[in-house]
Amino acid sequence: MHPHIGQIAALATAFCWTVTGVTYQIAGRKIGSVNVNMIRMVIALVLLSSYSFFAYGSFLPTSASLHNIVWLSLSGLVGFVIGDLCLFQAYVLIGARISMLVMTLSSPIAAIFGWLIMGETMSPLSLVGMALTLGGIALVILERPTAEEEGTSRIGLKYPTKGLLLALGGAFGQGFGLVLSKYGIGNFNPIQGTQIRAIAALVGFTIFFFAIRQWGIFFKSLNRPKVISVVAIGSIFGPFLGVSLSLFAVQHATTGVASTIMSIMPIIIIPVSVVIFKEKVTVKEIIGAVIAIAGVALFFL
Predict the structure, then answer these.
(1) Statement: residue 186 has pLDDT above 60
(2) What is the mean pLDDT of residues 13-34?
(3) Half-sphere exposure of residue 233: CA atoms within 13 angstroms, side-chain side
(4) Would the pTM count as exceeding 0.70?
């Protein structure tokens, strides 16, 4: 086996999640982010259950303990439902590139909740990393007053406030969900643990759809096969391949190295955003993304 197979898997994970962000941005603008969430969760659960059957002989994670089920289900509701509802709408409003950059905050958010809930320590280097990550994001999303506003000292946001807040909600969901997953998974199989999270998320989305009376619109969205195929691609590269590769990466490389490599999505997606979405990317935004990722790296040194 290649000596750097873990690092290669982590890099492949970053590419997979970049594909996911791009496909969900495209699909979300066509049929709505809420519908994309439901469709991709159904597809992901089918893939995970099929893999579970062929690998472990059961479509359902029957060997899970009550502890696994409760805490992983909570993680699924926080991460997949609350977090991804916010994130996918952020894709629509501010695009996958900026959303993924804000999502780098999930690492410091996870560190904070790990400290509060599980008593994990935060080193001074982690605090420096948090400040760097915040600084890199601020460099990208903040802008100075325009010529018409000259004479004012007020610094404004370069992107819609609602979109940035939704991306922050996505980072919160992923960070807090990760801590809940870590507490709930124990020594349980990670693939089947992901399956429990997906089942809980599907239940959560079903209740949410009834609450907002979304079913009519949802079934209409299924009549757009081209868009559904885009969601399917995102589901294969995200909840299925991406999760599997990330687990393989942490098995064959240190968590710090794997996590840092996987966090480079805001850099990978820059040329994709330029080519596919015709976005104009400034040097300042590239520098900000690099600084934010450097901050994430400090969490694992």
Answers:
(1) yes
(2) 92
(3) 16
(4) yes
